[in-house]
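Q: What would this chain look like folded?
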Amino acid sequence: MTIIDKVLSLQSAQKQPSILVIGDLMIDHYIWGNATRLSPEAPVPIVNVKNESTTLGGAGNVVQNLVSFGANVIVAGVIGNDAMGNQLIEILEAEGVKTNIIIKDNSRPTTVKTRVLAERHQLVRIDKEVTNAISEALANELTEKLTAIIDSADIIIFSDYNKGLFSPTLTQQLIKIANDHQKKVIIDPKGLNYEKYNGAFLIKPNRKELAEAAKTESLKNIDELQKAAQTIFAQTKTSYLIVTLSEDGIAIITEQASKLLPVKATEVFDVTGAGDTVIAAIAYFIATGFTVEEACELANHAAAIVVRQVGSATTTIDEIIKDME
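A: My prediction, written as structure tokens:
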């Protein structure tokens, strides 16, 4: 059976996986306008605002990709007890996502990234956030809630944006709980401390993130990727490193071997959010019975579709099938 036949069979079965996303949730706020003159107060453009929009950012983009595939999604994380946090939950619930494990923290705002654009050119980005580790009390509350529902998940994604959720202690606690319940954990990492991901099934850095974590500068070919990956395998005991390589495709690396999947994109307009699409596709297809290699092949096509669009985008199973034909 070909991989397309397997995907078609999956669709005809109409059985969707339940995927738990634990991650840094945020709002992407866009201010659109035009700028035709400079301010008399400082050498900066004056933007005449024409429109504003808000979308899910961070782990929320992973969630939206999974919803687009048809998965049943449960999301867990910490947000502020504020208007933007309420809006974030409203967007998720409108997508049919379960939000009862999202905890509100009175001591921090919901993370918001505001981008001011004039004629599609980004002039400035303003971040409202607190990135300190969440309190022990909140970590314990989150752990208790996740333990109660973890058996309902087919696979678990950690979407780490380094905003304070994934402290080393909490990350290790959550991985242990998942492993105790025989649930695979796949991780989109951030930062240099990969030891906190010890015990995860699969970790998906991009080329730059792997180079920084492995403390090396040159990752130009598959041999250099394999060598750098050994540092991460020693720290994490993970089974797979999936390295996204932008225009060079995706590398599937184990301790013993590596394989390069060439890029599928014929056009590239915007790579924003492509990594979120890749991690979502890998999790979705592994959860539905595909091998890691097959899941990465399908994720490569999914990424090729979204980079042809401007901004964070999603795709569907039908679009992936069409892209493979």
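The mean pLDDT is 91.
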